[in-house]
Specification:
This protein is α+β, with helices and mostly antiparallel strands. Helices cover 37% and strands 24% of the residues.
Length: 567
Amino acid sequence: MKNSEELRYRIYIIMAIMSAAGLTLVGQLVRWQVVEHHRFVAMAEAEHRNEILIAPRRGEIRDGAGYLLATDIIQYDISASPKIISDPQDVAQRIAPLLDMPVEQLAGTLSGDEIWIPLVKEVPQAAGESLLEWDIVGIKAEARTKRIYPEGALASHLLGFVNGNGYGFYGVEGYYDIMLRGTPGYQKGERSPFGELIPLAASDLVSPKSGPTLYLTIDRGVQHFIEEEIERTVDMYQAQRGSVVVLQPKTGQILGMANFPTYDPNLYAQTDEKLYANPAVSEQYEPGSVFKIISMAAGLDANVVLPETMLYDGGAIEVGGRVIYNWDRQSHDMVDMTDVLAKSLNVGMAQIAVALNKDRFYTYIKRFGFGRLTETDLASEGPGTLKTPKDSTWHESDLGANSFGQGIAVTPLQVASAVSAVANKGLLMKPYAVQRIVDDERDIEVKPVVIRRAISAQTANTLTGMLVEALDRAESKARVPGYRVAGKTGTAEIPIPGGYHPTLTLASFVGYLPADDPELVILVIIDRPTISRWGSKTAAPTFRRIAEQLVVLLNIPPDTEQLVMND
């Protein structure tokens, strides 16, 4: 009896276990076939479907007239799987001419038992497409895009470059990188056991969208000329480096920007990385006396001085405990404001800054854009360095030193942009390098942007006349026959630990013409010239040579013709 009850109990347990297992199985079947049916169907489809990303073509870059400066070409990387090549000698004889390799060497490589081996990189497009058409078992051709610059080193600092992974750096390539890359496409479809899409199977295709074409504000001819000129200038004056910036003051367009030494972006990987950054927008320097244009503009606009205001120049002045001397260490007695500019008198300029007082002086400096980015459309721009009374490191003596461009750090583009504001009736414009953005759906014209009014139009006109007269009084070598030129030289000392270098300088000249209706602002910087340390003897004549050619290249009539046209 007892054995019978135990048997029945075991049967109940087994039935319960089987019932639970059955219910679990039924529940799983319901989940698989009803509740999560769509998810499992998607998983099943994913097992035999594949998605291939299709890279877009990077947008081209052209100059304002449409000349090609940067584009993509297709090249192929060729590899082999020797293990599945049945006749290495025959294959080598067929493809060796395309790969520019000796037949016997290639045959030996293809005779191995490696699963995969690279053969040649960057094969021309025609050769790669021929290999694809032949479809030789064991030979693979993979397309690769390569960025090329047909004009070589021309405008390299303005353009930047694209690395092997397709990312843009510096210049226009860096600033507009995401836009230029375009939008990738893709193809989804059923794949074979080897992982490749089955050609005749159903598939989804979304085509890639190429990046837009960018048309720059520069002219290829202008750019080529100023690059040649700055290279010749650096060699002529035995300098270390040089830069030229050419702006259109009414719009802020960058008409040219050149530096020497430079590099070829096609060979960026073989270039010293120190040459990548564009000195005209990235590197800061003490501007020296060209900054007197800005200080004088502030004094005139605030009515602290008038052109005819007379100051006594005793050759030295103390500001904040620091004694400031003229560059020639001479006293010039009574001088008017045009004399202060013509003779480049530090003492006179310091008196203007003191009369302005620190608050008004630095307000004007900021209004001209110093101490901040110009927000130009070129990557890796630097803001410069401007200490103000709000900074703990500022000292009262800085007011005097800053007035003539010492103790303040700027970029060449900031200087050219600030002087452009004077040339443009007091309006500070945003400098830019791209004037049109064009693709299949749009053609966008980039409009000039007014940042702010730096000084009044009346002040700008008055200062322009003073700058023209100052060049005449100084018999400047920057003057251009047939054109009234407004401008200023600069000879800045080079900062070193503990002070300034006793002999090395940074020579510069910035000016604009025709003075009454300016079309060009040109800044020339010569770093550490050794033939002569003075901007008046190096940068000023360089400015003249550049201006004389640009008025011809850009068809800018002389002042007499302009007066007739305006009448």
